[in-house]
Q: What sequence folds into this?
């Protein structure tokens, strides 16, 4: 499993899954917007990061976000590992469409996301 500390206290861990990548994410209290609750922008960042890494795998080069849409259903608690996944929906030429999920400890959906990525041309 690959473990990445995006910022101190903001961790993303993942491994290959049948349709993309899956693993866990955790945010420390410094990323709270309300006591005990992770800020929605941080949640979007975690999903964007994992979906972008999944897009990179299918596109074969680094990918950048063209669009991202998040649907917030429940709060993410600080200091707790949450399930996170990114599934490739389609890949055509230089464009990948990816869906993402963040789940609580019980496996219930917290946030769903969809995003479109394009590969970065060689410079």
A:
């Amino acid at each position: 499993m690959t473990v990445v500390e995006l910022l101190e206290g903001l961790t993303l861990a993942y491994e290959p899954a049948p349709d993309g990548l899956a693993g866990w994410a955790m945010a420390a209290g410094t990323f709270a917007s309300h006591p005990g609750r992770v800020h929605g922008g941080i949640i979007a960042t975690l999903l964007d990061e994992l979906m972008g890494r999944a897009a990179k795998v299918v596109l074969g080069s680094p990918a950048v976000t063209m669009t991202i849409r998040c649907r917030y259903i429940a709060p993410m608690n600080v200091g707790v590992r949450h399930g996170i996944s990114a599934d490739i929906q389609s890949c055509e030429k230089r464009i990948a469409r990816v869906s993402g999920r963040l789940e609580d400890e019980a496996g219930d959906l917290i946030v769903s996301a969809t995003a479109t990525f394009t590969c970065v041309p060689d410079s």
User: Anything to note?
Assistant: The chain has one domain: 2-119. The mean pLDDT is 95.
